[in-house]
Predict the structure.
Amino acid sequence: MNMSILNKFWYLVIVILFMSSCSDDNQSTSNSPLVVEAYLHINRPFKVTVSNLTAVTATDVDNLTVTVSNGEETIFLNSIGDGLYRSNDNILVKEEGGDYVLNFMDNNKQVTALTVVPSRPENFQLSEYEIEIEPIDFGNGFPPRGGISNERIELTWENQKKGYYFTYFENLEDEPERINNIQNMTGGAAPTRFFRSEPTQESSTEIRYNQFEYYGKYNVILFHVNADYAGLYKEQENSSSLNLTSPFTNVVNGLGIFTAIHSDTVVLNVKKP
């Protein structure tokens, strides 16, 4: 699953740095802060992406000594190219809780970030685990046969401490059948096989049937995330090129995000009537 929400973040940072360099002819873009993107996930491989932003391009950095420490041991990450670093053993975090510190040197400055692994979601349930959606057929022109259902699925979980959660739907089929055939008629790009909700501090959310693009089985993943991830998500949703403020970051002497997540997964089947 692609957890990145930094594409718009990178764009804003590039514009900000470009404006700064235009206002100061002596400023070197080579001294621009590095951008970090890293997510700790229990019992999952861990990797860190580091990029060097300039006024017009993003250049990956492969010569850093990147470490992650939990206070008891320090793990050195291997550079595998394209600005990507990962640990020797695939699993870094094996239990929730505890502080983790990411660290490396850049231009004689120590770049650091701190995160805590959140707890596993509890009592994650769907109101339905199998739903039926009528196909939308434009084969005979407008109006289409079938229709868009207003029905919804309710997702619930425990959240007494008002943590941040979001849901992620991922189609598992190798060649899933589309619910809406208009893409076949227009030749447009196929819709993505996944979608997500925005982070919330509630203990439930609803997903509309018309958010599904394909039939088949879906992994429905509930992620418990830290407030910094929710903050970055909210900022990117509200930002625009006309509102250039300092971008959200929890990285000292750098930009970007180092955070931790925990998840639970159930399976949903979307089929024809």
